[in-house]
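Extended Data, panel c. Modelled sequence:
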Amino acid sequence: MKIIEGLKKIKDLRRKADDLVKLVRDNCAISSLTKPVYGTEQKAKIDGWIQAHKDICKEIATLKMRIAMTNHNTMVEIELPSGKRVVNSIAYWIHRRTELATMEYQMWNALTDRGIQEGIFQQNRSSTDQDSVKVEVVRFYDPATRDNMKMDLQSEPSVIDGKLEIVNAITDLMELE
């Protein structure tokens, strides 16, 4: 089974589990004046649905563990927008995609001029004296590097997504030992 098949199977199993919960909720008790929908088999049906739900939960857990193990142990090379080629596990790339690239972008985006205005300003030293003062922004970062990093980090998630879509379609799930 490929990773993508496992992910889709989990989604389908969750839908089936939800359906079983609804069946149990709707049929677990009735008024003494009401006839059971499933006749004399009502309790057996409820017990069967509960067991089926338990089995589905176990299957979901197994699939999730297999996916996690596969993601941790499968190495993938991705060429980042900067042109640099990086090899890491699928698990790393998922974290990079969902959280880390955004965190890095936020740091580079924090490098600003902080609203400081450049220009020549009049400075009042006393009521009769006025001096002109030239104000310049002193940056402790390279704006070109900041701009390049921001552009690369904005593109990175879609590059990772594209590569992982391919990897998920061709990579077999590992078996649990």
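The chain is about 60% helix and 10% strand. This feature is highlighted in the accompanying rendering.
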